[in-house]
Amino acid sequence: MNKWIIALLAATLATAVSAQPRYPDKPIRMIVPFPPGSASDFLARTVGQKLNEKYGQQVVIDNRPGAGGVVGSTLLAKAVPDGYTLGVIGQPHLINAILQKDPPYRALEDVVAIAQIASLPNVLVVSPNLPVKTTADLIALAKSKPGELNFGSAGIGASSHIAGEAFKAAAGINVTHVPFKLLSDVFTEMMAGRVHLYLFPLPAAMPMLKDNKLHVLAVGTPESGPA
């Protein structure tokens, strides 16, 4: 999985919305199923500012991380369907509904898609303490130490988890999955060398890459990403 598709959704709209004289006439809540600093959060704030300028109403970003996006998606699906609760979601919204035996929401029936916001490349990032310079170096190191390296993610079923598992399978390596709730914790553990690799959607990793605090080995697109 080399890209993370992020879309703007809303709880399934009631017919009463069309009868309202003006929309919106009060602030809009925008649920983000991942923590501040994540790719979804970055895009939600960008889109929220544009909606604020267009409608003249405040767009309140409501970060609800947890369970790889399940918490936020459930809140969105169960919100009052009046058009005043939106959500910015990615693949985990669909994946989590498939992975769980009794999912708390119906991925397609309980929400309506408004627009695709972005298609983001994933980047393979490693701890600065890891003695590798290329993806080939990383694979060789992982094969020489089966089970000793680990990769982080935003939770079970999150895009970073699925991307990590896909890389693990394609490379034929044995690395351990370590899920996190907060992006800041991921950065701390990677800087300390306790988490060795992570496949980030590019916007989430960019601040750390610009400061040379983490090292990027590869991008999940045929062309190079922005410098």
Provide structural commentary.
- The protein is α/β, with parallel strands linked by helices.
- It has 7 helices and 9 strands; from the N terminus they run ββαβαβαβαβαβαβαβ.
- The protein has helices at 39-55, 70-77, 92-99, 135-144, 159-171, 183-191, 202-210; strands spanning 3-11, 28-32, 59-63, 85-89, 111-126, 150-153, 176-179, 197-201, 215-219.
- The radius of gyration is 19 Å and the shape is elongated.
Q: Summed up, what is this model?
A:
The protein is of the alpha/beta class and 227 residues long. It is 33% helix and 26% strand.
User: Any idea what the shape is?
Assistant: elongated
Quick one: biggest sheet? 9 strands, mixed
Gyration radius from CA atoms, angstroms: 19 Å
Query: Structural class, from secondary structure content?
Result: alpha/beta
Low-confidence spans: none
Strand content: 25-35%
How many extended strands?
9
Relative helix content: 25-40%
- How many helices? The count is 7
How far apart lie the N and C ends? 22 Å
Instruction: Write down the secondary-structure element order.
Output: EEHEHEHEHEHEHEHE
Global mean pLDDT: 86
